[in-house]
Amino acid sequence: MTMSPPSPLIEALQQAVGAAHVLTEGDLSAYEHDWRRRARGRALAVVRPASAEQVAAVVRACVAHGATIVPQGGNTGLAVGSVPDETGTQVLLSLRRMDKVRAVDAANLTITVEAGCILQNLQGAAEAAGYLFPLSLAAEGSCTIGGNLATNAGGTQVVRYGNARELCLGLEVVTAQGEVWSGLTGLRKDNTGYDLRDLYIGSEGTLGIITAATLKLYPRPAAKLTAWAAVPSMQAAVDLLGLAHARLGAGLTGFEVMGQFALSLVDKHYPQLRVPLFKESPWCVLLENSDHESEAHARALFEQLLETALEGGCVTDAVVAENLTQAKGLWHIRESIPLAQAEEGLNIKHDISIPVSRIPAFVEETDALLAREIPGVRLVDFGHLGDGNLHYNVQAPEHGDAKAFLRDEEDRINTLVFDAVARHEGSISAEHGIGSLKAAKLPHYKSAVALGLMRGIKQALDPQGLMNPGRVLTTDSTGTGGNPR
């Protein structure tokens, strides 16, 4: 049987990266399925460049042939922002081959890596050089730094070190025209015009393709201690956070809150993890104290904090990890909540941020609202209370039809939750991004002025609309967007 010749676009892509790295046949599901299995697309081709110059050549080929491009890193996103659509016309550009650590500048406290570098490998390279790269999240063994920057990822250390944006000093980016912007400066001060770096961070590949980054390093702490505390209410958790800020200062590097039902799922599906203190308490908190003096100093501060909290009533019981193994075990419980929720069945995820002071009122109001509107609904509340980010997830009623629940109730639940977020002056996406999952909702919760500015930026940088279309902004060209509910 005679094979038909490749199309001109496929030939151009093969010339750009080599025929072996343009995949058009076989099992491409690892690239075409999103991590949550919410969507399955079909790529015209999966292209795997090895350098910024090859990425630029791929973009130029796509521009010449009018093909849209979907950039992809580790494909661990939760907002369906890095898989192709179902048309079979999009080029999926995988950055996984671009995984090198280019340089460590110890005096400048920076590390420069390529976009496909897995976050855990980046952490390891920093540690091998004697430093800390603090970005940490559950998917760190498979997510890439390019994807982290494209979504402005957060994780468990934001309370001290900030989101990915705060950890980045410079970028290398391939533009929508196929040019390479080399902005890998390690400067902490540079007032020479618009901040292009911050424009590309968080843009989810809709303006250009991040190919490398220069990132901040920090001295490694002399000691790191972890505590697990039971608290009687969300307000008590907020009070404990304030006390921790006052007593630990910059040493407070983690502050996570976990609801009783969320922890009961971990206990149910992973009983070997031995979840402490949750059966008698509606909420538990996980605290981390990083100390640059000594373990004895860190432990003394921690014990003083917890003693004051117990006396004040914002903590009812607490345990402090005695060693690194115990500390990792406590963190493993927290990180297992999404996995336990998946084991329980299909669910509706929300990644929201609220001013910390308003979180107790939001939770009380929205819990009651959902319970009233959908009898039997189960709420999986947990997240990064230290920076006001909740994963306010909704599980189908027990013994119900979870698929039917998602089909019939997801849009209504999203609207109820997002309206409550807007009433409390929050954001419908804290760290996961908008992707395609929330793109249609964004115009209801972003002002028309803000959406107009965003569309103007998109038009200026990607006038042909080839970069990850349908993500963040909908294809509506009117720019009206709508007003917050």
Write the layout of secondary structure elements.
Elements: H1 8-17, E1 22-23, H2 29-32, E2 43-47, H3 52-65, E3 69-72, E4 90-94, E5 101-105, E6 110-114, H4 119-128, E7 131-132, H5 145-150, H6 158-161, E8 168-175, E9 180-183, H7 196-200, E10 208-216, E11 218-219, E12 223-231, H8 234-248, E13 252-259, H9 260-269, E14 283-291, H10 295-312, E15 317-320, H11 324-335, H12 337-344, E16 347-348, E17 351-353, H13 359-373, E18 378-384, E19 389-395, H14 402-423, H15 442-445, H16 448-461
Parallel strand pairs: 2-4, 3-4
Antiparallel strand pairs: 1-2, 5-6, 6-10, 7-11, 8-9, 8-10, 12-14, 12-15, 13-14, 13-18, 16-19, 17-19, 18-19
Helix pairs in contact: 1-3, 8-10, 9-12, 13-14
3D architecture notes:
Residues 39-220 form the FAD-binding PCMH-type domain. The chain is α+β, with helices and mostly antiparallel strands. The protein has five domains: 8-94, Uridine Diphospho-n-acetylenolpyruvylglucosamine Reductase, domain 2; 101-219, Uridine Diphospho-n-acetylenolpyruvylglucosamine Reductase, domain 3; 223-338, 2-Layer Sandwich (Alpha-Beta Plaits); 345-423, Alpha-Beta Plaits (2-Layer Sandwich), CATH 3.30.70.2740; 443-485, no CATH class. The chain contains 16 helices and 19 strands.
Please outline what is shown here.
This protein is an alpha+beta fold and 485 residues long. It has helices at 8-17, 29-32, 52-65, 119-128, 145-150, 158-161, 196-200, 234-248, 260-269, 295-312, 324-335, 337-344, 359-373, 402-423, 442-445, 448-461, and strands at 22-23, 43-47, 69-72, 90-94, 101-105, 110-114, 131-132, 168-175, 180-183, 208-216, 218-219, 223-231, 252-259, 283-291, 317-320, 347-348, 351-353, 378-384, 389-395.
